[in-house]
Amino acid sequence: MKIGLLISEEGDPSWQKLFFWIKSFGHEPIVIYDKELIDNLGLILLFEDGNPSFCMKDIYGNLIDLDKIDIFFQRKWNGNLFHSINSFDKAFENQEIMALRDFILHDLKIKGKLVGFCTKDSNNKLIQLSTAQRIGLNIPKTVITNAKKKLTNRFINNKFIIKAMDGVYLNINENKILTNYTERIKLPEIETDFFCSMFQLEIEKKTELRVFYFLGNFYSVASISNDINEEVDIRILIAENKVEYYPFDLPKSIKVKIVELMMELDLDMGSLDFIVDKSENYYFIDLNPFGQISMLSSTCFPYIEKDIVTNLIIQHEKKSKNIVN
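The structure corresponding to this sequence follows.
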């Protein structure tokens, strides 16, 4: 059995462990970097006989026929371009590559050969919040506006935060990686008019949860910080080694809602962030459709990569059995 790993970062420790477990189970791992798609190495996509077929070369010059791979696991096969796209040519090339990438993933999904598929809609934080609220999950009080007066009556005497509507933004500039963080903010600090932004009521949290969902399985980790001046964005505390982790057993009612949310967003995998307040209320914050595996592996679930590979094999066997029947 051949298992394709769609990878964006060579240094991602999780895919290396996935590679190891695929080999350990006696199967053949096929690693495909998004760099190989971006650089157009020996690409050929054919529309013949009503069945699209796709071939490309890997970084070593070996030809990869996607039709001969049994199942794929998408581990951030983003197709992102880290070189400059200031020119029209580069911007156009980027657009074409993204179209090709989206089609390949769509085709693999249709054929039942892809785990980790996500659409632009499922990655949209506003759609995530709206869907979560519609199915009955709590979300923080949220206001999106470009005028201070719209905030005054909604957050007066309350702590609130400002965060991006589209998740994490990365930009490489002069060998530095620039990114955005969620920040606590006060009304007097805000100008009268500003670029349209998302504001949320700050939840007085008891703990913060990271829940990795994979094909109906749950891996939940609670994070606690003893930092006196605790940052709103836990990524800052993680970078400063001020966070402790422990396994967390989610209530059945929350698991049921998560399954419903994932079905609504057409996702079979993802990392969901929740805040539990001091009254034991659960608030959905957002969702990363690609999941964050290495943190779970290095803290509370050291064999999560083994579980992922096991479930990929089971998924393929189910599909093969359905075809035979």
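The CA atoms of residues 25 and 310 lie 9 Å apart.
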